[in-house]
Amino acid sequence: MTLLEEILLFNQQFVENREYEQYQTSKFPNKKLVVLSCMDTRLSDLLPRAMNLKNGDAKFIKNAGAVVSHPFGSTMRSILVAVYELGADEVCVIGHYGCGMGSIDPDKTFEKMTAYGIPNETIATLEHSGIDLHGWLKRIESIPESVRESVRMIKNHPLVPNSLIVHGLVIDPDTGKLDVVINGYQV
Q: Could you give the 3-state DSSP secondary structure of residue 159?
């Protein structure tokens, strides 16, 4: 059985048994909160539980490293939609200790890409056309500083209202302990 077949079989039973009912909520976050976190699998259940967030309490945005890498990229767009269309008034940017983005080596990633069949010429063409692939895949040198930079990017965005409160935290993926990097109420 393939993974997709497994998922669809489970889903059929999930729907038939009406298990979805316990997750029903509106599209508006109950706590008016947006959480930007890393896509690390250790955080999927741990992070909401460590923050006492239940289904429907917050909008969750996940990417590699919990980074706002571009002021007009999809992460920032999602934050703005959550604020203006869904009523969020606070954001928590939450990095984590031991993040894989702290050890990534762009050159090794390019080697893996070519091993998967991406031609070296494609990578070279992209780099020569002005796309900084090394910068795009750059290592996070300091998780707290990366969180600070993402908070700054959000707070200083020309389309973000001054009233938006933005916090920066780092979570320990082993214990769930949250360390405050920036308290948005005190800025």
A: coil
pTM for the model stands at 0.93
For residues 166 and 98, membership in a common domain is answered with yes
Query: SS3 for 147?
Result: helix
HSE-CB of 102 using CA atoms within 13 angstroms: 14
Residue 50: domain span: 25-104+139-182
Task: Kindly give, in sequence order, each residue whose CB lies less than 8 Å from that of residue 1, ignoring residues fewer than 6 positions away.
Answer: 9
What digits encode the pLDDT tens for the residues 116-174? 999 999 999 999 999 999 999 999 999 999 999 999 999 999 999 999 999 999 999 99
Contacts of 94 (CB under 8 A, 6+ apart): 35, 36, 37, 38, 47, 66, 147, 168, 169, 170, 171, 178
Question: Is 19 part of a structural domain of the chain?
Answer: no
Place of tokens 């869904």: 86
Cβ neighbours for 154, distance < 8 A, ≥ 6 positions apart: 68, 76, 79, 91, 93, 160, 164, 166
Q: Which two tokens stand for residue 183?
A: 């308290």
d(CA 179, CA 89): 21
